[in-house]
Design goal:
Largest sheet: 5 strands, parallel
Number of strands: 5
Low-confidence stretches: none
Mean pLDDT: 93
Order of helices and strands: EHEHHHHEEHHHEH
Strand order of the largest sheet: 2-3-1-4-5
Structural class: alpha/beta
Distance between the termini: 11 Å
Radius of gyration: 17 Å
Strand content: 5-15%
Length: 196
């Protein structure tokens, strides 16, 4: 079985993926693959520098992710441009990782991707879980990651309406609001239903 995990920033996709891994799932994380394809010297960094300027690349050739985030989360057109550079590099690696996990005998593969639906990955999944939480939890989680308040607000604003757009594609909505143990129980119940 393949479960796709998607939803807004700070709502708990990675936490849900970790819980599924604890229950035996192989997890394929699109963000992790995106970090790999944006390593120094890779084709993504060259294209990103060409599109957004050398100010987003540090002297050692690595991306200045903070500088890049300040640009792309302030303008939807810039965010789309960045995605058009990164996503074509991520997709084949993600599909290869799913195939490798299944070839190795994984009975459950969780694909974590914010662009699961828009990137056409939802169609490859048996279930799509839309991971949400209340706005207060979302902001406190971002603050806990060290994301400054104004930066968090820009990132949240860049995803305005995301839950509404993704809801029609979702098999289940997983609300991670409140204490982690309660959210963990919701995930276990959803997994049991999906497997039945």
């Amino acid at each position: 079985m393949r479960i796709g995990l998607t939803g807004p920033i700070g709502c708990g996709k990675s936490t849900v993926a970790r819980w599924l891994a604890e229950d035996g799932a192989a997890v394929v994380d699109a963000d992790e693959i995106a970090r790999d394809v944006t390593q120094p010297g890779g084709p993504a960094v060259t294209a990103i520098a060409r599109r957004f300027g050398r100010s987003v690349v540090r002297p050692d050739g690595s991306l200045d992710r903070g500088a890049l985030a300040a640009i792309v989360f302030a303008d939807p057109e810039h965010l789309r441009a960045l995605e058009s550079i990164i996503h074509p590099l991520v997709r084949p690696r993600l599909l290869a990782a799913v195939k490798a996990a299944e070839s190795a005998g994984a009975a459950l593969v969780a694909i974590e991707a914010i662009k699961l639906v828009e990137g056409g990955l939802a169609e490859l999944c048996d279930e799509v879980w839309l991971v949400t939480c209340d706005p207060g939890d979302q902001r406190s989680r971002l603050a806990g990651r060290g994301v400054a308040g104004d930066d968090a607000e820009r990132r949240i604003a860049a995803q305005t309406g995301l839950v509404e757009r993704l809801a029609p594609a979702a098999t289940r909505v997983i609300d991670t609001s409140g204490p982690p143990q309660r959210a963990r129980e919701r995930v276990r119940a959803a997994l049991a239903e999906a497997a039945s």
